[in-house]
Amino acid sequence: MGIPVTLLEDDNVHEAIAEVESRNRSNGDGAEEPGRENWHLVKDIPSQLGLRADSAWSAMKDRKSAGGAFWALWLDDGSRVCVVDAHGRVRETSVSFDAKITSLDIRNENTAVFLLETGICGTWDLNSGHTRFCDGVQQFDAHHRTEAFVWAGQQQARNSGRGLTHVTLSTARARYAITTSYSNSAVWADVRVLREPVCAAMGDDGDLLATSDGQGVDIHHLSRGTQTSVVGLALAENERVWRLGIKPDCQTVIIATTYRLLSHKLGSGGVSLICEAREGSCFDIDSEGGILVERRHLYGTHIAYYTFCEDSLCWSSVGYTDVRAQFGIRKIDKMIAMGEDKICVLSELGTWTVLSVVRR
After folding, report:
1. Residue 272: exposed, middle, or buried by beta-carbon count in 10 A (0-12, 13-18, 19+)?
2. Taxonomically, which superkingdom (predicted)?
C-alpha cells in the first residue's frame, strides 16, 4: 500500500537550477564540459613543425628548458638531435661522444649542455659543433645510477660565477656539481637520500630537487642542504609514484602516480588532487603553472587544462579539447607546452601538430 504524493512545481526551481549551472561553468567544478568555453585548443597555422613524420620520434628522449623557451629531443648515441624553440623553429643536428647521452638541455639558441652516462658533463656549441668537457667531474658507475639531469640555468654559483648545475642520483646518494662558465670546473657536494630514487625532477632554479622511491616523495634544497618528506600521499595498495614535475615558480611539486595526478605545495601539510590519470599519461606544466593532461577514453582522446584556485585551495578543470574528434589525433606519444600559448603534440603516427591555446 503506497502513500499518495502530490508534486507541486515551484516557479523558482528552474531559476535556481540555472544559477547553479552558471556557477559551475564559471568555477569549472568537476565537470569538464561546462569549462570548455574558458580554455580550448585550435590548430595552429602552420599546424606542422618543420619535422618530417617519423615513428622514431617516440623513442627519442626529450627535455624542455626553463619556461618552455626550447625543447630538445635526442637519440642517446647523438646521431640525431633536434632543438625546437618557442616559435616552432627547428634545428636538427648530431654529435659524437664515446658514451651515450643521458641528459641534454638548451642554454640558448647557440649552446647546449650535456650529461653522458659516465657522469661527464659539458657544453656543446650548436653552430661549430665544438664540445667542451667540465673539469673535475667525477665519473660514476652507470649501473648504479637511477636518474641523472643536467640543467642549463643561471643559478648564482658559490664562487659568484654563473653556470650550469649538474645533478646525478645514485642508489646511495645524490650528487650535484655547480660548474661556472668562467672556470669550467665542477664543485661537488653530496645530498643525503633516505630512499633509493626511481624518478626525480629538478626545478628551474637549479636548487629544488624532488625524488621518489615510488612510495614516498622527498624534497631537497641543494643550496641549504635540507630535505623534507611529503606527507599525506596515502597511496593505495598497488599505487606507486612513476613521475615527478615542478612548477615554474618552484613552489609546487607535481606527483604522478599510477592512478592520480597530485600536487604538493612546499610548506603545506599534504597533497591536493588534480585529476585521475593512468600511468604513462602525458602531462606538462605551462608557463602560467597550469597543468595540461592527456585523457583517453573509449570514444576519444582529449587534452584537459587544470588550474589551482588559491581561494578554494583546490584544482579545477577550466577547459578541454577532444583532439581525436577535431584534429584526428588518436593517441598522444609526447606533449609539451611551448611558450605561453603553444602546445606541440606527437601522435602515434610520428606526426607533429602545433595547437594554439584560446583563453576567455
Report:
1. middle
2. Eukaryota
In the structure grid, which three cell numbers stand for residue 278, read together? 593512468
Other C-beta atoms closer than 10 Å to the C-beta of 54 total: 15
Give the global pTM: 0.81
Q: Are 20 and 7 in contact (CB under 8 A)?
A: no
**What DSSP designation does 341 have?**
T
Dihedral, 248, 253, 258, 261 alpha carbons, nearest 10: -70
Beta bridge partners of 113: 105, 123
Which positions ≥6 away from 6 have C-beta within 8 Å? none
Per residue in 224-276, pLDDT (tens digit) is: 888 899 998 999 999 999 999 999 999 999 999 999 999 999 988 899 999 99
| Topology at the third CATH level for domain 35-359 | Methylamine Dehydrogenase; Chain H (2.130.10)
CB 174 within 8 A of CB 190: yes
Q: Are 57 and 73 in contact (CB under 8 A)?
A: yes
CA distance 56 to 59: 6
* Nearest alpha carbon to residue 345 among 1, 62, 35, 33: 62
Q: Residue 332, CB half-sphere, CA atoms under 13 Å: how many?
A: 27
Element (H, E) at 325: helix 323-327
For residue 65, count CB atoms less than 10 angstroms from its CB and return exposed for 0-12, middle for 13-18, buried for 19 or more. buried
Angle at 202 between CA 197 and CA 207, to 5 degrees: 115
